[in-house]
Amino acid sequence: MVAKLNDFLGKLAGGGARANQFKVTISGVAFVTHTEQITFMCRSASLPALTVGEVPVFYRGRQIYVAGDRTYADWTITCYNDAGWSARGDFERWNNALQEIGQSTSGTQDPASYYGIAQVEQKDRSDATMRVAEMRGVWPTNVGEIALAWDTVDAVEEFDVTLRFNWMQLYGAKGPTLGSL
Hints:
Layout: H1 5-11, E1 22-27, H2 35-41, E2 42-44, E3 51-59, E4 62-71, E5 75-80, H3 86-98, H4 111-114, E6 116-123, E7 129-143, E8 158-164, E9 167-172, E10 175-180
């Protein structure tokens, strides 16, 4: 088969999906009151990896592998910090509800009260949704540092938030495409 540039370009529909065309939303949590602010302040995110473990099975001196259990890695987003600390404040309140920062060792014990729903929408150049990854049972394990320095000029503060989720669903523009994961 001879490689032809026009054949390749014909397969790259719409010029390809763009990494800078996305939207992140987080909902379903009482501690997150500025959902629109989080959406606008989210500078970067990722579409979570799909991982299925492997189970080695031995048979007559040979080793074969069968599919194991699905696992989900941590999911990290990077946010800008606005002057009102809206997005950062939401993540701090949410994280504090899990385990209080102050003198108490208490926290919210009922997962239903702190689990949220996060969505990453991949957009096309016309801002139409092409794909959605929806994470369920989301909660922040780490609200990252904000680096401060006297010699930092012309920069907006940023911070990472690491979230854990229990399961996810994938959707195309017209609804579920791969079913419930």
